[in-house]
């Protein structure tokens, strides 16, 4: 009979690799921005992004939001950031920017101290472009579900 280590490695090899990768992703601490990977909003709207730190053994010691290369918590005007943890130790942070302007477009990243960061691309649009983007988004979304746009 082979030693236990050989049995374990043989069992591990026979386990489907795509399931192993999925299990590893599920247990690795990571940040998730609830709005997804891309967000469109009209100029003058309030930008509100929420980030949750999942599968972390402890609450984050700190969490920074970035807009492109700037630390949004400190270097971006008019941005408010709140950070807190629930009873389960899940850290949640919200970035709020009232009266968003086109120059506020770009990549926003939620970077906790104890997990992989998450990013979202924000598009602040004005006038005709905003109407076109919303039409395109609604048409594509409905088309995916078999409804007419």
From TrEMBL:
One record GO biological process: synapse organization
Pfam family, one: Ig_3
Alphabetized InterPro entries for the sequence: Ig-like_dom, Ig-like_dom_sf, Ig-like_fold, Ig_sub, Ig_sub2, Zig-8
GO cellular component, one term: neuron projection membrane
UniProt xrefs under PROSITE patterns: IG_LIKE
Residue span, Ig-like domain: 29-121
Matches recorded under PANTHER family: DEFECTIVE PROBOSCIS EXTENSION RESPONSE 13, ISOFORM B, DEFECTIVE PROBOSCIS EXTENSION RESPONSE DPR -RELATED
Protein name: Ig-like domain-containing protein
Native source organism of the sequence: Portunus trituberculatus (Swimming crab)
């Amino acid at each position: 009979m082979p030693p236990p280590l050989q049995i374990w490695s043989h069992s591990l090899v026979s386990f489907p690799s795509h399931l192993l990768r999925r299990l590893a992703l599920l247990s690795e601490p990571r940040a998730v921005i609830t709005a997804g990977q891309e967000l469109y909003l009209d100029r003058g709207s309030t930008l509100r992004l929420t980030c949750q730190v999942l599968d972390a053994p402890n609450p984050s010691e700190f969490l920074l939001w970035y807009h492109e290369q700037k630390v949004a918590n400190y270097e971006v005007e008019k941005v408010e950031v709140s950070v807190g943890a629930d009873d389960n130790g899940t850290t949640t942070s919200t970035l709020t920017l009232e009266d968003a302007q086109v120059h506020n477009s770009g990549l926003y990243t939620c970077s906790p101290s104890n997990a992989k960061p998450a990013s979202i691309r924000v598009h602040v649009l004005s006038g005709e472009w905003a109407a076109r983007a919303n039409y395109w988004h609604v048409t594509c979304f409905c088309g995916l579900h078999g409804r007419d746009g």
